[in-house]
What we know:
flavoprotein, Nitroreductase, 4 strands, 8 helices
Amino acid sequence: MDFNEVIKSRRSIRKFKTQPIPDKYIQEIIEAGRLAPSVSNIQSTRYVIIKSSEVKEKLNEYTVPFVKNAPVVIVCCAYKKAWLEQEEKFLELKNMGAFKDFYQETEQQINNFAKDGKLEIMANPEINKYYTWQHAAIAIDHMTLKAVDLGLGSCWVGFVDREKVRKLINLNEDYEVIALLPIGYPSYNPLPRPRLSINDILLKEL
Length: 206
């Protein structure tokens, strides 16, 4: 599908056919998330795939009801310890030449940023959490668009008891549940939602 059509066709789908989803499609959706960018390339987003009707019934206690009716639910999580590898990931990018096209003064700024073996701006856990959620958001958006490209529908679900879902899917405290992504073949075709005009959202051009 043309990329512009993918963007225009994406809807929040809350009703699904019972038709199963090929495993190949699920892998392609996860792959779309895997390729999403992240700060220092730490790749902190992780996924749990739920197909079991029994698990979805239990999941229903902790989120909105329509989620259990999707053939597949992807639980999108943050791996909080990914930040421990930030220096390694940052230097990996630097050594592979990811910054080689930057200006000389920018390269010096990068060296200063990584001095003493630390990326000091990321030392604050609150900043880490902000970026971790941002990583997941970017990955989820990639995945919702890939779902459309495959003829599937999805809905980003943030209304969820994250701690109870984490325990339900048996993840330790190194992981934090960010959102649920129910996926399936749409059983209806929602109309486009109203959107503000470009003039409404473009504040200024300097």
